[in-house]
Amino acid sequence: MFNHQPTISALSLGDLKSLIKTGEGTYLEFKRTISNPEKIARELCAFANTKGGILLIGVDDNGAMVGVTSFHEEHYLLVESTDFYCNPPIKHKIEIFELGDREIVLVKVEEAEVKPVYVQVGKKRYAYERIKDKSVRVSREKAVLLENSSRTEGITFNYGPNEQKLFRYLNEYEKITVNEFSNLINLNKKKAAQILVNMVSIGVLNLFSSEKSDYFTLSNKAF
Q1: Are the C-beta atoms of residues 207 and 190 closer than 8 Å to each other?
Q2: pLDDT for 151-200, tens place per residue?
Q3: Which of 9, 88, 186, 195 is the most exposed place for a label (fewest CB within 10 A)?
Q4: Is 104 within the bounds of a domain?
Q5: Are 130 and 144 part of one and the same domain?
Q6: Do residues 139 and 209 make contact, with C-beta atoms less than 8 angstroms apart?
Q7: What gap in Å lies between CA 48 and CA 150, rounded to an integer?
């Protein structure tokens, strides 16, 4: 289990202002307060599935340092976010920056060693990642790719008729989705996706994610 006890931040007021000035992005997210533990879990898991990051609680979207009036309430909801919704648990530290009679809460999240980290909601679970300043739900294919990145055993790849069709398609159209590949080789989407994900894992394809859909392209390693 991880220690949820907060510590006093070593940042100066100038340091904190400089951090906030960089704006929300891949490694930084602002929240005025915690209104929904599940939504906060999405932000934390997204950081863990990407490169880590910092969640600032008590900071408005425009960067204004409004602070929180009751750290204990925020802390209770934060612990609920990490312990009840994040699966597996994330590595993080909680720091407090005192701002007069209010406080700014810094949640520093480490990149997960084992990915993906899921937000568990009942029997359903979803993985998220950071894309610019947003925490975006990843596709099933991206979740498998994150899992593959944590595996130690090798991933096999066979260059057969399906792969030949794929390369010919990509040479002409440059990118392909799982649905398009499934139709191209007349194979169900799950198996088609597995072929694409394995090829990304060994560096033959690139996977690009967006809020709308994922697509695959040839990488520089493709033969």
Answers
A1: no
A2: 645 666 678 899 999 999 999 999 999 999 999 999 999 899 889 988 88
A3: 186
A4: yes
A5: no
A6: yes
A7: 13
